[in-house]
Amino acid sequence: MENFEFYSPARLIFGKGTENTIGQQLKPYAKKVLLHYGGGSIKKTGLYDRVVASLNEAGVAFVELGGVQPNPRLKLAQEGIDLCRRENVDLILAVGGGSVIDSAKCIAMGVCYDGDVWDMYQQGKAIEKALPVAVILTIPAAGSEASGDTVITNEDKALKYGYGSPKLRPLMSVMNPELFYTLPKNQVANGVTDMMSHVFERYFTNTKSVELTDGLCETVLRTIMHNAPRVLKNAEDYDAWCEIGFAGTVAHNGLVGCGRAQDWGCHNMEHELSAIYDVAHGAGLAVLTPAWMTYVWKDNPEMFVQFAVKVMGVDGSYREPEAIITEGIEKLRAFFTAIGQPATLTELGIGEDRLEEMARKATHECFGKEQPIGGLKKLYWQDVLAIYKLAL
Amino acid sequence: MENFEFYSPARLIFGKGTENTIGQQLKPYAKKVLLHYGGGSIKKTGLYDRVVASLNEAGVAFVELGGVQPNPRLKLAQEGIDLCRRENVDLILAVGGGSVIDSAKCIAMGVCYDGDVWDMYQQGKAIEKALPVAVILTIPAAGSEASGDTVITNEDKALKYGYGSPKLRPLMSVMNPELFYTLPKNQVANGVTDMMSHVFERYFTNTKSVELTDGLCETVLRTIMHNAPRVLKNAEDYDAWCEIGFAGTVAHNGLVGCGRAQDWGCHNMEHELSAIYDVAHGAGLAVLTPAWMTYVWKDNPEMFVQFAVKVMGVDGSYREPEAIITEGIEKLRAFFTAIGQPATLTELGIGEDRLEEMARKATHECFGKEQPIGGLKKLYWQDVLAIYKLAL
Q1: Which A-chain residues 102-131 have CB contacts (< 8 A) with chain B?
Q2: Of B184, B390, B196, which Cα lies nearest the Cα of B297?
Q3: Alpha carbon distance B256, B260 (integer Å)
Q4: How much is the ipTM here?
Q5: With contacts defined as CB-CB under 8 Å, which chain B residues touch A2?
Q6: Of the candidates A9, A208, A243, which has its C-beta nearest B9's C-beta?
Q7: How confident is residue B71, by pLDDT bands cut at 50, 70 and 90?
Q8: Among A116, A309, B124, B189, which residue's Cβ finds the most Cβ atoms within 10 Å?
Q9: Separation between Cα atoms, residue A271 and residue A162, nearest integer Å
Q10: Where does the pLDDT of residue B42 fall: very low under 50, low under 70, confident under 90, or very high at 90 and above?
Q11: pTM to 2 decimal places
């Protein structure tokens, strides 16, 4: 096990009716909040009205900024930063999924920074301060409700970059799984895929003697895979939604990756797809992950045997590891297909023409200083290109 | 799944050499700390000198109070409270195991409270404030390094009571598994038993649809049971100690109990043994837990089948659940014996004479208002007495 720090201070407030307590919860921390949300679905479902009522009742003032898109845009966040400064906002309340939360974190640090907030994403600058962020989660997926990470798309440059700091971990996250009932099936599938990938990126490692976190990863993955078909079959299965929602948080609050070298190759490769083609992050991951596994497993076959047996339930002869591994990858592919995900880049409308450009961007090769991505196997731009091609 | 809040803000700083950073870690939070420790083993091992050097180097002043005993005493904590007030201490640094940390928490809240700190334990009063507590862990066991709980023995009244508040969760906990190399084998066994019990108390529940936390509990238990014999065989097995140490924290930081009705019957029954006979908490738990299982399993046989199969690895016919359950309990008993724990109260030198007194105290029956203990099965004083007798 490697040395590590684990710090996950976000208070998770979980269960039926919890969103109606948001005003009381925020009162000790904020006089005026920015209510930040997406395309307006929270108005259709009545959530917006309940949140506003709760804030009013508690005497917490607010200004609002809606319009966050999937793959959240830098420009809107910059608008939010100006608004917060003008209005003396002291806390950002994100009501939505990962995109809204990531946008909120971008605003939260931008308000406290003198330059352009893109500096952080571009240069990885450390931040000294950020406004607190609170969350009401409407899409279980990104795990952003517990993490200190944010991913933003710079639409002018067609770049999608991530940034992380412990100072960006939300103060609190409210999760009522009933709010997930109205999600369209493709968003459910994308969310499930994303949270599985958050575990995969930590699970697949060359670090040895990480038995506890191996087991935690495996149980989170099995729980997600058992419950995803249940919520897709019955959108109002509260118990199954509880498992999915809670698993999505545990998948990304840092715990299951403690003491392990991590990978993040698939996430990095997928960000290029989303930046150029604006495909859903989950759909991109569903296509790339099995291709990545096929490309890299020979670098650590023992790890992939363990995955096949303990996560995918493959029951074969350990004397034929390749057969076990291949069956594990096939079963994962079949799972993604069963929840409605595409299996190829072609299905996503992506052809060969820009693969090389994306591979060079993913590894920063095109910026003159190549940084290989991935952990279990270091991926240079030629490797990334080969994986994209396997996924066609 | 039941509604829940999960809040575990303690920063875990884990791995080799981490104790030498304590001065730097504390500097932003404290001008003067109380260095609180036990019987002086930290002086023999050189840990005391390293901690003092780190504090001096960072310019963090300190006063000290040693002498914490296992089953920590109220009187010493009261002495610590006076000392902290006199010296304007602003943070308590506990260097030790659960007893030292629990004593530190008692001091931390006592300093900020006008009356007698025993009020909290006796009456369960809510606290408004406490000094921050930091920890350097020397015994993986109690999980107190992540929890908001403290247990104190009032030696005048022969009462051992617990108290919990989110305000008592440590600010940070430093864990270098190398510090565990010098622990005597019986302390290792007691620590392992205690952390297993922290999971059991959460695992055994009648709450349904708690698949994720079921799985988390099971993987923590399997990890502990796999690695305990390894550290008992080779006291310097760093990898195995990492698993045990980290598992002890996860067992008690609240995560594995989220959304579940919990039990705590065995802990409550054991506190009576420790209060009267001053037996080690872990030894008491090792004796009582299998007896408790034997007494209660008929109230939820499905839960105990799951335990036998998924935790103890019993591979029998599901058409004979009683056989599976009995084998599971026997395997647990055998595990405790293998790590050197006693199997009966008799081995602990405890006879029949005070069992009824303890049963009436455990349930507060003797104070005129009986409060049954336990969750999976409510235990009245006659039930507790029956379990004590089964354990003779």
Answers
A1: none
A2: B390
A3: 9
A4: 0.95
A5: 15
A6: A9
A7: confident
A8: B189
A9: 9
A10: very high
A11: 0.95
